[in-house]
Amino acid sequence: MPISETITVTGMTCDHCVRSVRDELTALDGVDGVDVDLASGLVTLHTEAPVDEAAVRAAVQEAGYEVSS
User: Can you tell me the distance from the alpha carbon of 8 to that of 44, in angstroms, rounded to the nearest whole number?
Assistant: First the structure.
C-alpha cells in the first residue's frame, strides 16, 4: 500500500533547488516519487514502505538544504 510522508525543507528559493531536492530524494531506495512545493517548502515522498528518516535528512543535506524539525 503506497505511503505519503511530508517534510519541510528550508532554504529552497528556485526551480533548481526543487530539482536538486527531488533528484536526491528520488534516488533513495523505496521512493517512488517526490512532490516539492517551493512556496511552502513542503516535500511529499511517495513510497511503498517507510523510508529511514536519517537517509531522508542526509539526501536533503546532500542537495544543500535542511529538513526543518
Answer: 9
